[in-house]
Structure prediction request, 76 residues.
Amino acid sequence: MNKKNNYQHLVGRDKKQIVYEMGQEFNFYPNNVWTYIIDNGWFGRKTVLLLFFKNEKVYEIKVKNFYGKIARLSED
Prediction:
């Protein structure tokens, strides 16, 4: 099953609702891209949920796998 489908219900929610449901984590509140580590796998693999905000509401969701440190994330 696609992990992205597990989070589709977050589309359209505002930042306060996201913090209530997912927690603050290490997200800087004014940023338009927030990240949540949703899985730590073998060999340093991390599955990360990316939430993209427009007008303070989630408009897009991506789930990506990273290895090692998560250096920089963009809206690519």
User: Anything to note?
Assistant: The mean pLDDT is 86. The helical segments are 15-22. Residues 7 and 57 are 14 Å apart (CA to CA).
